Amino acid sequence: QVQLVESGGGLAQAGGSLRLSCAASGGTFRSYYMGWFRQAPGKEREFVATINWSGAVTQYADSVRGRFTISRDNFKNMVFLQMNSLKPEDTAVYYCAADWDRSRLVASTGDGVPYWGQGTQVTVSS
Question: Which H helix or E strand runs over 68?
Answer without folding.
Answer: strand 68-73
